């Protein structure tokens, strides 16, 4: 991804109709690390949607190299370009997704060598076999995963799983609980809301399942339901808090799946996405009677 920069600064804003506004340590996406104070002031006014601004005085400006968080006036991708971003973990023989849960076993059902007896000389085929639980790698949860009368893999409409406009929520480092206040700045209606916590860096290690793993709070899930999110994904071990203190409660799963909002867990590579301007796909096979299954999750950036 192209290097991105943000400005950290103080600002004093004066309004033409009276009054003013002060900010300290404000951070804002910028298109150019050499941005002038005047250009930064214009970007700030546009980002906040302020009217009747008479003057903006910028001070204590520092430019930092940091991924964009989303802001009006900063393009997220060059027009006319299109690329795909892989967001799934690779499923390998014996890998661990959830500690203590069965690992996948990948073998040959028919080897190339054995197939030669069935075909003309020089013709051979391999047919593989995989034995695994449905919660392996990067996978989708449907309402049937949580609710007995919920829709299963075969029943979820494909337009809830593919080519969805996306919104990336960058969770600050060290933050565990993603709550409504953290989600408030984002436009999520009809979007795949992806929570980028950075926890995927620990996938396959002992730390992945530790109490520090980030999660979505029940209140955060209810806020996403109320705002009309189409799908919610996370790059952590679970969208819910898995610590003993949570006592097995699963409020995020319960709220989202009750509302028919699919969940994608164990995503990876979300840090390569822009805040908006991408489309998300995570479609599993149409298997009747199952509530979860691995997906090939990816984003399309235009």
- What about the largest sheet? 9 strands, mixed
Report the β-strand fraction as a percent range.
Answer: 25-35%
Computed Rg: 23 Å
Oligomer: single chain
Which H/E pattern describes the elements? EEHEEEHEEEEHEEHEHEEEE
- How would you state the average pLDDT, rounded? 93
Overall outline: elongated
How many helices does DSSP assign? 5
Q: Looking across the biggest beta sheet, what order are the strands in?
A: 4-16-14-8-10-12-13-7-15
What distance separates the N and C termini?
A: 14 Å
How many strands appear in the DSSP assignment?
Answer: 16
List key phrases describing it.
302 residues, alpha/beta, 9-stranded mixed β-sheet
In short:
This protein is of the alpha/beta class and about 300 residues long. It has helices at about 35-50, 110-115, 180-185, 220-225, 250-260; strands at about 5-15, 20-30, 55-65, 85, 105-110, 125-130, 140, 165-170, 175-180, 190-195, 215, 230-235, 265, 280, 290-295, 300. It has a 9-stranded mixed β-sheet with strand order 4-16-14-8-10-12-13-7-15, with helices on one face. Strands 2-1-3 form a 3-stranded antiparallel β-sheet, with helices on one face. A two-stranded antiparallel ribbon has the order 5-6.
């Amino acid at each position: 991804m192209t290097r991105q920069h943000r400005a950290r600064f103080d600002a004093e804003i004066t309004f033409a109709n009276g009054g003013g506004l002060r900010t300290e340590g404000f951070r804002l996406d910028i298109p150019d690390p050499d941005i002038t104070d005047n250009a930064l002031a214009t970007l700030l006014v546009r980002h906040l949607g302020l009217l009747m601004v008479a003057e903006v005085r910028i001070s204590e400006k520092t430019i930092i190299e940091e991924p964009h968080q989303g802001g009006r006036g900063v393009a997220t991708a060059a027009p006319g370009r299109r690329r795909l971003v892989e967001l799934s973990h690779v499923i390998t023989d014996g890998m661990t997704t959830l500690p203590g849960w069965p690992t996948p076993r990948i073998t040959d059902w028919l080897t190339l060598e054995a197939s030669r007896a069935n075909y003309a000389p020089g013709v051979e085929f391999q047919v593989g076999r995989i034995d695994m639980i449905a919660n392996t790698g990067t996978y989708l949860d449907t309402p049937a995963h949580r609710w007995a009368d919920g829709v299963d893999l075969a029943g979820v409409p494909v337009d809830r799983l593919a080519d969805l406009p996306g919104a990336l929520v960058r969770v600050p480092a060290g933050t565990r609980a993603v709550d409504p206040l953290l989600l408030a700045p984002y436009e999520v209606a009809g979007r795949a809301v992806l929570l980028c916590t950075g926890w995927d860096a620990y996938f396959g290690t002992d730390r992945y399942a530790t109490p520090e793993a980030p999660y979505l709070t029940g209140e955060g899930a209810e806020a996403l339901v109320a705002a009309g999110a189409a799908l919610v994904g996370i790059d952590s071990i679970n969208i819910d808090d898995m610590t003993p203190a949570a006592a097995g409660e699963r409020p995020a799963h319960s709220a989202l799946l009750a509302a028919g909002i699919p969940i994608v867990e164990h995503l990876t590579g979300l840090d390569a996405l822009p805040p908006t301007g991408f489309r998300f796909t995570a479609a599993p096979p149409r298997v009747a009677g199952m509530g979860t299954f691995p997906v090939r999750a990816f984003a399309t950036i235009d």
